[in-house]
Amino acid sequence: MFFRTGAILAGVFALSLGALPAIAQEAPADDDAAERVRAEQIVVTGNGLGETPGTPAYAAVTLGRDALLRAASGRIEDVLTNVAGFQQFRRSDSRSSNPSAQGVTLRALGGNATSRALVLLDGVPMVDPFFGYVPLSALAPDTLGAVRVTRGGGSGPFGAGALSGTIELESAGPDALGRVSAQLLASQRGETEASGAIVPRLGQGFVVVSGRWDRGKGFFTTPPAQRVPATVRAAYESWSTAVRAVAPIAPDVELQSRIAVYRDNRVLRFAGADTSTEGEDASLRLVGRGAWQFDALAYFQARDFSNVVVSAATFRPTLDQFATPAQGIGGKLEVRPPLGESNVLRLGADWRRLSGTMRETAFNANTGAITARRTAGGVNSDFGLYAENDMTLGRIVLTGGLRADRTVIADGYFEVRNAAGTVTSRSDYARQADWTLTWRGGALWRASPVVALRAAAYTGLRQPTLNELYRPFTVFPVTTQANAALRNERQKGFEAGIDLTPAEGFALSLTGFDNRIENAIANVTIGTNLRQRRNVDEIRAHGIEATASASVGIARFDGSLAWTDAELRNGAASPLTGKRPAQTPRIAASGTLTLTPAPGWQIAATLRHVGQQYEDDLQIDSLKAATTLDLFAQVPLGGGASLVLRGENLFDTEIVTRNSGGSIDLGVPRTVWAGLRFTM
What we know:
Blueprint: H1 6-23, H2 31-40, E1 61-63, H3 65-69, H4 76-80, E2 87-88, E3 104-105, E4 118-121, E5 124-125, E6 144-151, E7 165-171, H5 174-177, E8 180-187, E9 192-198, E10 201-202, E11 205-216, E12 236-250, E13 253-267, E14 274-288, E15 293-310, E16 317-323, E17 326-336, E18 343-363, E19 370-393, E20 396-417, E21 423-428, E22 432-445, E23 451-462, H6 466-470, E24 473-475, E25 478-481, E26 489-500, E27 506-527, E28 530-552, E29 555-569, E30 587-595, E31 602-610, E32 613-614, E33 622-623, E34 626-638, E35 641-648, E36 656-660, E37 663-666, E38 671-679
Parallel strand pairs: 4-7, 25-28
Antiparallel strand pairs: 1-6, 2-3, 4-5, 6-7, 8-9, 8-38, 9-11, 10-11, 11-12, 12-13, 13-14, 14-15, 15-16, 15-17, 16-18, 17-18, 18-19, 19-20, 20-21, 20-22, 22-23, 23-26, 24-25, 26-27, 27-28, 28-29, 29-30, 30-31, 31-34, 32-33, 34-35, 35-38, 36-37
């Protein structure tokens, strides 16, 4: 797979680096000339145009670099769990879950392993083109500068994916990374985590070359009472590398490029149940900060996924999904006319095309004979036009946006062949196309230096993924069928909140919301050990989200709380009506106490609680509540080196991540890490 797109990646890299020598300048000999050059020096950031004045009206939360670096697991999903309303499909992290289950959402709006939140890295959508999951293991927190989470239906670029909100990841630059940075840690089980970055400045631009390698024998996800001779630890090995170049090509225009390659291998539950993902991403971005501001982006993604399913009865392979090649291509253009600081207008268009093919072989669990060879796939595309305007009127900010999307589902098929390769069945599905109008609007009133009031309403859209449309799957003993007739999900919601800053270093934010997803796609039980992806009438969620921070001297506290009352509605006769969506807790809370007793020192303790939730739509199998404690410590040693200590789940709480008729999987047990971090 890597060689299929190598030429594209090399071309992107060459184009971006080509701009760097042109802007490198020899330093003037005299001091006066040097001072003039410094005064006229172009400043490059590597970022986009930034948030607009209306962003705070939508309950946006920003996590800084310190929060990214003190995660006890070193994983991005661990960082995001501290945001009220953030939820993964399962409680497993990206070392011990099936990658295809790494969907993320906000507002406890449920899911079926597909992301209902839009995840962007430097403006590029990161969800897998076929499955809709997020490649969490390829997103290293130590390469990021900040994360902004905006909850509620989205507008603006790629807003068709922001059904429950948007998670914007922003890469770090030289000021945060230093010239050279590295980290090496090991756990008590012998697992290792190594990462590093080299950040040379070339002229007035810079290049970031980064990499990460994680490996370990893992832990037993199966409880002791359910282990058999075929049971193995959740061993994992993943690596990722990226090159990012930023160069000014005019006084107020900069070119940004990024190429990345990653691979992830895992073993889940039984020997031979191997899962792997790999990907290659490339993007080019042109950002203008002059009178007419603009943000132009183009990207290409190549992904693959493979998975072996092992029978829980015979412990032999029953399915080899040996390849799922998928491609994503797209781009956007946004323009902000010079209307003054009090009137920010965004006009833009974006386009995405997602294609992929599933290839798998099914076996008889007893004899090992091939029973079927299956392929399935299709093409999804979305073309969007959007406009959004923020107006500042003294203490009041008004914001509103409108978006029109042309969504197309095409070329879908499902084909079955026998062991000899003869076609035994084939289904070709009808093309679906539609125009959808979505909008959002909000207001922010800074009533005083202490109090700010806000309110917002919005709608949203999400296409079903190729996985939901065409790929059936089995997690023993339950088989879930695909459904090529799925319709787009629609979201409607509103919220109101208050932000308080009673004193320097103190902040409190409280938001009440009511959101619903119409035509929600869920895994619906239709028989014994049989489910199908179907549109249900709606998922309704209303609740409260709260965040608080307090800083006094060397101590700082950051907390979040999400209480959500969510239920399915599918008509009076449906057994689903009134039940909570699968994998959706009623309550989730997090609190972090951080001490910085001296420069370079940091000690942090994070206490989390996730409430009871259900495995299935009929609320038969329960996942009990879990409370965990994580610790992080950094002690400077001198010369840019620091000792780093991390502890995950120090209470050794039993975290149930799957419960299918009593067959249980567990999350991370107590894990202690120690190592060194170096920055210069």
